[in-house]
Design brief:
Keywords: ATP-binding, Nucleotide-binding
Protein name: ABC transporter domain-containing protein
Domain ABC transporter: 129-325
Pfam families: ABC_tran
Largest sheet: 5 strands, parallel
Shape: globular
Number of strands: 13
Structural class: alpha/beta
CATH class of the largest domain: Alpha Beta
GO cellular component, one term: plasma membrane
Distance between the termini: 31 Å
Oligomer: single chain
Helix content: 25-40%
CATH topology of the largest domain: Rossmann fold
Radius of gyration: 21 Å
Order of helices and strands: HHEHEEEEEEHEEHHHEHHEHEE
Length: 328
């Protein structure tokens, strides 16, 4: 706004309005690099609207947003006087605002509604012994998280909660990357597998196959490559892999060693409709022990703990859901 010559008092008023509208009061003084995925998305959309533009172009704006933030976005765009172009990989609540919808296929735009996430048919798994048993307090420097959680063998457990509620903080504490006080019983060898939301920064090798070999051997890497369904990308640099497949590379890298506990943080970000079905198959199959059978190591039923803001899809994939709330 400074570059546009907006008077300082007008800037202050617009910022105050944006903070109130998007619920940014608790994070207004935080380092942006320490915000959650959803909080970062809310700040980005709020910043785009601050300049009072005549048009908006939004790239998957609901990815990582909780239900309240999605409702705010729908309401805000419904009042927006200018033109809005939204790119999405699957249908979202923003579709109700659209005057026109197109599908981009092989470089050609064709009038068509966006497909919805493909919901799997699921048979609930019987609960096994606790793999993760947590009743602890942790802090990331911005808030305090009080967490009570059990993740059982053979089950997919959904970790729910609004943006900034501490879902990633909990996973980092389980991994031993944040200090905590209280009870935290989790597997230590092998350490839990971890697929973060910000997957690109986690890749360090020049091919998908070499990425999967980090911390393990070629046999495990080959098994994960085949079981997840990434064979065609084996010799491709991870950052050159399409978004949905790249997300699955991150998941494969987390499960390649066959950990008893698999932690997957917001894996639906960047996924198209077929990618949702692919993810559901991998998460359910891993908890059922399919990957361990592919490795030839016998019958094992790991636990999967994951986060996702799409409540309908999360319910279709998960056996159990646990909601987090933090305290300032």
């Amino acid at each position: 706004m400074e570059q546009q010559g907006v008077p300082r008092e007008v800037m202050a008023s617009r910022i105050d309005d944006a903070v109130d509208l998007w619920g940014l009061g608790e994070i207004i003084d935080r380092d942006p690099s320490r915000l959650s995925t959803g909080q970062t998305r809310r700040v980005a959309v709020a910043a785009a609207l601050l300049r009072d533009p005549g048009a908006l172009v939004l790239d998957c704006p609901t990815d990582g947003l909780d239900a309240a933030a999605v409702d705010t976005l729908v309401e805000t765009l419904g009042r927006f006087a200018g033109d809005v172009t939204v790119y999405d990989r699957v249908a979202t609540p923003l579709a109700v605002l659209a005057d026109e919808q197109f599908a981009l296929v092989d470089g050609t735009l064709t009038p068509a509604p966006a497909p919805g996430p493909e919901l799997p048919e699921m048979t609930p798994a019987s609960p096994g012994e606790p793999v993760l048993d947590a009743g602890f307090t942790a802090t990331n420097g911005s808030f305090i998280l009080d967490a009570t959680l059990v993740a059982r063998a053979g089950q997919v457990t959904h970790l729910a909660g609004p943006n900034g509620s501490g879902k990633t903080t909990l996973m980092l504490a389980v991994l031993g990357l944040l200090p905590h006080t209280g009870r935290l019983v989790a597997p230590s060898s092998p350490t839990p597998g971890w697929a973060p939301t910000g997957m690109d920064a986690a890749f360090s090798k020049r091919s998908v196959f070499r990425e999967l070999m980090v911390g393990t051997d070629a046999a495990h890497a080959r098994a994960a490559l085949e079981w997840v369904g990434l064979e065609q990308w084996a010799d491709v640099h991870p950052l050159d892999v399409p978004s949905a497949a790249r997300r699955m590379v991150a998941v494969a890298a987390a499960l390649v060693r066959g950990p008893e506990l698999l932690l997957v943080d917001e894996p639906t970000v960047g996924l198209d409709a077929p990618g949702h079905r692919w993810l559901a198959h991998v998460l359910r199959g891993y908890a059922a022990g399919e990957y361990h059978r592919a490795l030839g190591v016998g019958e094992k039923r790991p636990a999967v703990l994951w986060t996702c803001h799409d409540a309908e899809f999360a319910a279709a994939v998960s056996d159990v859901s646990v909601e987090l709330r933090n305290r300032p």
